[in-house]
Specification:
Blueprint lengths: L1 H15 L23 H8 L13 H9 L4 E4 L2 E4 L5 E2 L5 E2 L3
Antiparallel strand pairs: 1-2, 3-4
Length: 100
């Protein structure tokens, strides 16, 4: 079922002229959902099409930390479900990011 959804997303992106990015399995460890922290920079540079060394100073550590600490739409902490509306965070250089 996951493969059908993935194929459908790829077709939808193609029809609408959008970029469809396939994540690299090598970025993941035993946890197939979260990228290994040691590969965060590499993965995000590739996903955002940033060339290493070309965009020096384009973001700050504080900006990165703010994005990292944003709450997802739904999560459970100590058995209590939390809900955070997702208006999306505006990025300084344009664009918006949502965390689900």
């Amino acid at each position: 079922m996951a493969e059908q959804i993935d194929n459908g997303l790829a077709r939808l992106a193609s029809v609408r002229g959008l970029k469809y990015f396939e994540l690299h399995p090598s970025w993941y460890g035993f946890d197939p959902i979260h990228i290994r922290p040691s590969l965060w920079k590499t993965a995000w540079q590739e996903m955002l099409q940033v060339r290493p060394g070309k965009n020096k100073g384009s973001g700050s550590a504080i900006e990165g930390l703010k994005l990292y600490l944003r709450a997802p739409e739904r999560r459970r902490l100590f058995g209590i479900e939390q809900f955070t509306p997702q208006p999306g965070a505006m990025l300084p250089k344009g664009g918006r990011i949502w965390l689900y």
